[in-house]
Amino acid sequence: MKMIAISGTPRKGWNTSMLLHKLLEGARSKGAETEIINLYDLDYKGCKSCFVCKTIDGKSYGKCIMKDGLTRVLEKIQNADALVLGSPIYFGRVSGQMAVFLERLLFPYITYETPSKSLFPKMINTGFIYTMNVADEQMREAGIDTHIHFNEKMLSIAFGKCESFMSFYTLQADDYNKFLVAADGETRIKRRKEEFPKDLDKVFEIGAKLATES
Ligand SMILES: Cc1cc2nc3c(=O)[nH]c(=O)nc-3n(C[C@H](O)[C@H](O)[C@H](O)COP(=O)(O)O)c2cc1C
Q1: Is the CB of 95 under 6 A from ligand 1?
Q2: Which of 31, 75, 97, 170 to pair with 185, CA 20 to 30 A apart?
Q3: What is the C-alpha separation between 168 and 134, in angstroms, rounded?
Q4: Reported confidence tier of residue 181, pLDDT bands at 50, 70, 90
C-alpha cells in the first residue's frame, strides 16, 4: 500500500515534520511504501473557482485543470491508498500553504448534492496532524477545534474515515533567550523532552494502523 504525507510547515525537522516522519515510520513498519511532499517546496495557487471540475459531462469533471506545482501531487494522491496531512496552527487555522492545498484537493471531489458525494475513485483512510503553541483547553476556547472538526468532515466526505491528532504546547525555538516568543521556554523545553516523545509514539501507532486498515 502507498501512503502519501503532505507537510504544510515551512520548518523541516521541527514539530509537524517530526510527527509526520514518525507516522510514516509506523506505516513502513507494516510494509507501506511512503512518500512525504513539502508544500513549501512547491509553487502553486488556490482554487480559481473556474468550475471546470464541476462541468456536467465535461472531460475534466471531478478533476482540477490548473497546471502548477500541485498538478503532479494531486495525480499521485489519486493513486494513494492512504493520505496524511500535517500543519502547524497559524492564527487559529492551518498554514496558508495548507489551506490553499485543501481548496485544490477537496473542491473537485466533493459534489454539491445533498448529501455531498465524493468523486474520488475509492475510499481511503486519511489522517491530519496539527501542532500548536497552546494547550488543549486554550485550543477549544479559541475555537480551533471547530476548524479541525470542519477539516475532518470535509476529508471524510471526500476520502472516507479521517483521524485527527493534535500536538499541544510545542517547542517554538531552540533558544528562548534569543527571541521574544512564549515566555515559558523552560516549561516547553521540558515538555519537548518528556511529553513530545509520547506524541511521537502515538503517531507511529496511527501510521501503523492506517497502513494495516487501508
Ligand atoms: C505565523 C504563526 C502563527 C501562529 N499562530 C498560532 C495560533 O494561532 N495558535 C497557536 O496555538 N499557535 C500558533 N503558532 C505557533 C505554531 O502553531 C506552533 O509553534 C507549531 O507547533 C509550529 O509548527 P512547526 O514547529 O512544525 O513549524 C503560530 C506560529 C506562527 C509562525
Answers
A1: no
A2: 97
A3: 6
A4: confident
